[in-house]
């Protein structure tokens, strides 16, 4: 008998086998245990028990651990598995105070050709991926620090951040901090020195991914965050602290434009929306939900989908940065929100202010006033059960420095009723109440909410513009003198002039002085009560001739 070999059949069988092998590698089940790490050595010792009911996620699906603390999740070859920290427990933190709550599974590592290192190959999936937790007190009331855009582009700017902001928050009452993206300014090698400075605050620090944290050598969005993942972990995750549930997401979508240049838009995407939907299914409806991302809410192409997920919850807050101004918006049905009360979105002030620009002060740090006229600074958030309050803190200024009052030094008595008082309440919103009083004995007069360009910032920007002119003059002198100018000759260091346009500030109030004020010297008192009931008073002296 003669047998003929069917080579085509053999070829198909080989392809089928290879496909099965690839599929087996791409879709695998990860298993492990979440346990109480009593001695905090990050090793599951024989006498340490698993914790039941703790949520674990692969970035989309979420499962709860069983009575032994065990879980299983499907993973592919580009998955970050993480534990969702429950109330009353904490994950380990590394030497930079970054929470360690995840395991990266990338058997082949990040793609080649990225300018900054991504994740090294992790190899085969471990037999057990375990997550240690330890117990900690988490009362109903607590404080956190919130930073917008630290965004250093050099070690000089990290030094400014350290002296301008970080030193004053060491020893804070806050239990953890959040940075709302643009941790650095495109130079991802600064992640490590930045983290070292941030760690001196001495509290755990959670980080959001921003457009200046992208790896610009990436070919597509899924690879743009590889360096961020290596340093910080997942870009989409959640955790509980006290009675509050926090969700941090990535709303920066990387793409290459028609000229193959790196660019970005704002988008949440179906994968993260699925995670948020699954995550919220485990969170009681009356719980306060705080969602943090980088680019402001209304700029997201799928904002309506995010709002739809949150809209049946009475207690929500969302946070962003990115714009280098401070602004509060109250979002309604036009953006997909369907809650009984508008959703509060807080676009936060930046610690870098106007990108570390401005004249240098007496200790060599730029004033870096933000484009809305507010100083650079950070937020102190207080949470009590499902309520919150926000307190803006200007860098290196007293805690009660909450406004700038713009009024002339001298005014004629018969011109007072034509003279404006303009006030920038740094943390003010359209819900703030603002009034003023001239002198100690007169009645308080209501001020009108009047968004506009801050005249203080317009003036500062004009004065700082001389820096750029001087820099050009110095450059021209150096070029013209050539070899006659010694190489070590240095012109005075003044800083960088404010180079960005002045937008409308959304926390401005205005009123006229009273009519025919008698000649004399007066104190203008401005009183503001914000949406949280916090009251501040500012003062400015004026002379009436």
Give a quick set of tags describing it.
545 residues, alpha+beta, Immunoglobulin-like, Purple Acid Phosphatase, chain A, domain 2, five-stranded mixed beta sheet, 32 strands, 19% helix
Folded structure, characterized:
The chain has 545 residues and is of the alpha+beta class. The chain has 4 domains: 7-105, Sandwich (Immunoglobulin-like); 138-394, 4-Layer Sandwich (Purple Acid Phosphatase, chain A, domain 2), CATH 3.60.21.10; 403-454 and 504-544, Sandwich (Immunoglobulin-like), CATH 2.60.40.1220; 466-496, no CATH class. It is built from 8 helices and 32 strands. Residues 7-26 and 483-492 have low confidence and may be disordered.
Query: Ranges with pLDDT <50 over ≥5 residues?
Result: 7-26, 483-492
CATH topology of the largest domain: Purple Acid Phosphatase, chain A, domain 2
| Helical residue percent band | 10-25%
The DSSP helix count reads 8
Structural class: alpha+beta
Mean pLDDT: 91
Indicate how many domains the architecture comprises.
4
CATH first level of the largest domain: Alpha Beta
Kindly report the name of the CATH homologous superfamily of the largest domain.
Metallo-dependent phosphatases
The global form is: elongated
Which architecture name of the largest domain does CATH use?
Answer: 4-Layer Sandwich
């Amino acid at each position: 008998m003669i047998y003929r070999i069917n080579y085509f059949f053999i070829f198909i069988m080989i392809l089928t086998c290879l496909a099965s092998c690839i599929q087996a590698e791409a879709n695998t089940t990860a298993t492990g245990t979440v346990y109480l790490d009593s001695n905090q050595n990050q090793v599951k010792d024989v006498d340490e028990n698993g914790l039941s009911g703790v949520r674990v996620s692969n970035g989309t699906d979420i499962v709860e651990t069983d009575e032994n603390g065990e879980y299983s999740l499907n993973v592919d070859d580009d998955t970050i598995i993480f534990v969702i920290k429950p109330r009353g427990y904490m994950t380990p933190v590394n030497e930079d105070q970054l929470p360690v709550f995840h395991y990266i599974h990338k058997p082949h590592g990040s793609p080649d050709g990225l300018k900054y290192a991504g994740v090294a190959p992790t190899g085969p999936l471990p037999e057990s991926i375990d997550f240690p937790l330890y117990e900690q007190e988490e009362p109903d009331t607590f404080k956190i620090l919130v930073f917008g855009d630290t965004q250093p582009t050099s070690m000089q700017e990290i030094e400014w951040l350290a002296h301008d902001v970080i030193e004053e928050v060491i020893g804070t009452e806050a239990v953890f901090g959040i940075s709302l993206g643009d941790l650095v300014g495109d130079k991802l090698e600064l992640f490590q020195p930045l983290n070292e400075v941030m760690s001196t605050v001495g509290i755990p620090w959670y980080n959001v991914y921003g457009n200046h944290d992208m790896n610009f050598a990436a070919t597509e969005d899924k690879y743009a965050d590889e360096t961020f993942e290596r340093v910080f972990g997942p870009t989409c995750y959640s955790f509980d602290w006290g009675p509050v549930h926090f969700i941090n997401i990535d709303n920066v979508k990387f793409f290459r434009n028609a000229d193959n240049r790196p660019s970005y838009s704002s988008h949440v995407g179906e994968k993260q929306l699925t995670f948020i939907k699954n995550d919220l299914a485990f969170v009681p409806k009356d719980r306060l939900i705080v969602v943090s991302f980088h680019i402001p809410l209304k700029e997201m192409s799928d904002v309506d989908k995010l709002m739809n997920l949150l809209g049946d919850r009475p207690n929500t807050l969302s946070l962003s940065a990115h714009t280098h101004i401070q602004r509060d918006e109250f979002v309604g049905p036009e953006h997909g929100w369907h809650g009984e009360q508008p959703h509060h979105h807080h676009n936060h002030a930046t610690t870098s202010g106007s990108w570390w620009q401005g004249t240098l002060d007496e200790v060599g740090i730029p004033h870096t006033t933000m484009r809305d006229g507010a100083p650079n600074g950070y937020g102190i958030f207080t949470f009590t059960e499902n309520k919150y309050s926000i307190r803006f803190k200007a860098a290196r200024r007293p805690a009660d420095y909450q406004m700038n009052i713009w009024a002339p030094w001298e005014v004629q008595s018969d011109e007072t009723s034509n003279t404006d008082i303009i006030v920038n309440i740094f943390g003010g919103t359209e819900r703030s109440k603002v009034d003023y009083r001239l002198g100690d004995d007169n009645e308080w007069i209501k001020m009108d909410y009047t968004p506009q360009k801050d005249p203080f910032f317009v003036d500062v920007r004009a004065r700082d513009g001389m820096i750029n002119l001087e820099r050009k003059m110095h450059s021209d002198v150096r070029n013209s003198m050539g070899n006659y100018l010694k190489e070590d000759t240095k012109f005075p260091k003044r800083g960088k002039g404010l180079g960005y346009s002045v937008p409308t500030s959304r926390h401005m109030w205005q009123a006229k002085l009273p009519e025919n004020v008698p000649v004399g010297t007066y104190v203008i008192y401005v009183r503001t009560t914000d949406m949280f009931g916090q009251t501040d008073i500012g003062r400015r002296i004026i002379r009436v001739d």
